[in-house]
Amino acid sequence: MRIDQLNGLMALRAVAGTRNFTQAARQLAVSSSAVSQSIKQLEQRLGVALLARTTRTTSLTPAGEEFLNQAGPALDQVLDALEDVGGHSKKPSGVLRINLPRHIYQIYLVPVIASFMLKHPEITLDLTFDDRQSEDFGKGCDAKILLSDFIAVDLVALKLFGPIRFVTAAAPGYLEKRGRPAHPRDLLSHNCIRAYCEGETIYDRWEFEEKGKEFEVHVRGNLILNDTLTMIDAAVEGAGVIYTMADAISGQVQSGGLEVILKPYSSSSTGFYLYYPNPSKVLPRLRAFIDHLKSARKQIAMG
Q1: What is the CATH number of domain 3-86?
Q2: Of 166, 171, 133, nearest in space to 152 by CA
């Protein structure tokens, strides 16, 4: 296989996975035009169209899908071999891709990440912010920081902080107009700001505790968001009731922008964890990140 064909195959798989040339280019650390040119050269070499492009989306043609199904496993073996050999490097380097909720980064990890970058300047840290809880690990992700409750048992977990207390809150002005619920069931008559929790699944069954027993309330509302910090901003403006981490709204509560309600019924989770697969193949850059988080756990817990 010629080098341009290998580049084309890598570009094709990246575009197939992201359905976007810009995101594929970011994943491969090249320009969008380089991705496009590599795929074009591969198509010319094979004499078939591998991608179907429209103004809105990009997808594999039947020929492209068949080609990638056949050639993809071989590419994986080549890339894994390169990673394994590169992993013997004494000094951690390269791109480390971490997926995590944006509010977790801003509340707990900003100084920890900054100190890591100072300690390991050869590592390029690529952070992708996503509040949705998903255990799916693709080629573009080395590790994820997620809530404990959503994760499969076959992943390695490093606890960062916890337990986490979840509270319900709303703006004082909203509560003056709509009333303050005395019991979680009263939320059925309120406008609740809901979030995506995994994929396209909406987290609308809020969890509470009463006399040591857990129960859920199936809430409704006319605003659905995929970002916790945006939800908090909406709640401060009086858009409705939110259900979130107590630490995430401590500043808004102190300033009077939000008021915590239903305190006796607050629930908790064991905490947030760093999850990663294949512990036998942890590369030096990920090991360095894990070791740094371990040494910084007290700092993280303090927020």
Answers
A1: 1.10.10.10
A2: 133
* Fold classified for 94-155+272-302: D-Maltodextrin-Binding Protein; domain 2 (3.40.190)
Render pLDDT for 14-51 as a digit per residue (tens, 0 to 9).
Answer: 888 777 788 788 777 788 888 888 888 888 888 888 88
> Is the Cβ–Cβ distance between 12 and 42 less than 8 Å?
yes
The residue ranges of every structural domain in the chain are 3-86, 94-155+272-302, 164-269
Q: What is the pLDDT of residues 59-112, one digit of tens each?
A: 888 888 888 888 877 776 666 665 555 555 568 889 999 999 888 999 889 999
CA 215/CA 191 separation, integer angstroms = 20
Whole-angstrom distance, CA of residue 100 vs CA of residue 211: 33
Task: State the Cα–Cα distance between residues 215 and 135, nearest whole angstrom.
Answer: 25
H or E stretch including 269? strand 267-269
Question: Does residue 103 contact residue 248 with C-beta atoms inside 8 Å?
Answer: yes
Q: Strand, coil or helix: what is 162?
A: coil
Burial class (CB in 10 A: 0-12, 13-18, 19+), 300: middle
Query: What CATH number should be reported for the domain whose range is 164-269?
Result: 3.40.190.290
Beta strands at 193-198 and 223-225: parallel, antiparallel or unpaired: parallel
- Domains 94-155+272-302 and 164-269 belong to one CATH topology: yes
C-alpha span between 47 and 3 (Å, rounded): 18
